[in-house]
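Contributing new records

If you add data, match the layout below exactly. Sequence lines come first and carry their own label; structure lines follow with theirs. Keep one chain per record. Anything else will be rejected by the validation script.
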Amino acid sequence: MIPISVCIIARNEEQHIQECCERLVPYGFEIVLVDTGSVDRTVELARNYTKCIYHFDWCDDFSAAKNYAMSKASHDWILSLDCDEYLEHLDADLLRKYMMQYPRHAGRILIRNRFTENGETAYEQVRVSRFVNRRYFHFEGAVHEQLVPGTGSDAEPKHVYHAPVTVLHVGYNGSPDEMRKKALRNITLLEKELRTQGDDPYLYFQLGQSYRKLQDYEKACACFDAGLAMEVDPAMDYVQTMVESYGYTLLDLKRNQDALNLLGVYEEFSGRADFVFLMGLIYMNNGLFHEAVQEFQKAATMEEFSVEGVNSYKAHYNAGVIYECTGHLREAREAYLKCGAYEAARARLHKL
């Protein structure tokens, strides 16, 4: 078995902890659970899978809890998961090869976020650094914590690679009240961190995302404005997502003409389908239907994406809607047929 410790922090996660651990069992990994004050059956259920269970007094700092969990592991190689993250795929042979090849690099695992949108199940995927050798990395950040290189002789630039690990995150499927409480908690911690550490584009990004979950688009927009006004690296995943979230927030605020200003950064951010799809929506909301169709058709040819469907059925569907609304019914049917089993497209075909 590969000498890997899977480190998990938990609090009142009885609905997730069994599934999380069950999916790890076939690989024989050590499971280290750090509980931060559960009053449900989380710890009791976890005992069926591991003896490595520890308590940590919650101090409003996720990094402190995760660093404590890493310190209790028997192995240096750490895979950090949350209770609501279920392992879907892991290529053990390839991972072992990367451990030998990149001992001081951070492995970015693929996380598939499952959520509900307009009454339908949708997925978004993102790569996050979660697999490292603890001798060279630790967590920083009270909330939305990140793995960063160590200090002193161990410090070096954070090199990354795509770890052959895929995880399903189901935490966005909670009740509206649970999601609201989680967003409010994150806002409190993020604002505290901004006060203590000063302006930081990543913190503004996460704060904006939290306000979007509350549908407070004015505050979300202000956060994205603040983050993007700072010096940021367009190659960073979170910067790409912040630009896209900013565009959607402008549309939510009916600031359609302002959203057209994103054309100024088209070259930098049109490398994945999500931004191109967004530009299609922006054109559509501004009545520029020919340009919108072009963007949707371009998005449908792209391989790199975050939100499922922006480079396939969602792009074809939006093009079909434009064709249908402008009286081009043959083209509309062709576009809807490309959507496969997408229910909204099937409904439009039925009406046509």
